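Retro notes (design track)

What went well: tokenization of the new backbones is finally stable.
What didn't: we kept losing track of which sequence belonged to which structure.
Fix going forward: every design gets posted as structure first, then sequence, in one message. First example under the new rule, 174 residues:
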């Protein structure tokens, strides 16, 4: 497994569809409504060279008003197809999700040297163990699952490169 530090400073074009990676650093969650708002209002934080995770985490708040991550798993990424290419042009280098994405995303990944990786569904409790800290949250008015959560992670994975920055996809018909 290849560990990638986020924000990404390395050239992701060396990664190929099928490679297995993990992430260490800062990632953000972003589902449908967060993608829409990113395009309407811009990012609430610096997303340049970061990773966006298509996830709606389960989060609780304790008596001291601290947030606690209970579980975080991928949501179906094709729902983000209408927004994803434009969001990729805003700077994130890694998109994390579940299932395939369309050719507009494939072209945006190629153009911006980015990758799309898939997280394994059903591993929400496993992925939460890699989260060291909830650093911030934006757009709570969208609801906890749709809010944009800023997370500090260590060895977050395994994640499989499903679409690389060279136009290859695990979802192509062979």
């Amino acid at each position: 497994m290849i560990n990638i530090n986020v924000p990404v400073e390395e050239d992701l074009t060396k990664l190929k569809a099928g490679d297995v990676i993990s992430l260490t650093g800062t990632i953000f969650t972003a589902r449908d409504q967060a993608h829409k708002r990113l395009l309407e209002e811009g990012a609430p934080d610096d997303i340049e060279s970061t990773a966006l995770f298509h996830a709606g985490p389960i989060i609780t708040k304790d008596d001291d008003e601290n947030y606690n991550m209970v579980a975080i798993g991928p949501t179906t990424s094709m729902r983000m197809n209408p927004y994803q290419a434009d969001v990729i042009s805003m700077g994130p280098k890694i998109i994390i999700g579940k299932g395939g994405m369309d050719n507009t995303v494939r072209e945006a990944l190629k153009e911006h040297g980015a990758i799309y990786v898939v997280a394994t569904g059903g591993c929400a409790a496993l992925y939460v163990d890699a989260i060291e800290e909830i650093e911030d949250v934006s757009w709570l008015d969208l609801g906890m699952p749709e809010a944009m959560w800023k997370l500090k992670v260590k060895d977050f994975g395994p994640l499989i490169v499903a679409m690389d920055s060279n136009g290859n996809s695990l979802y192509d018909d062979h």
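Added context from the reviewer: The two ends are 25 Å apart (CA to CA).
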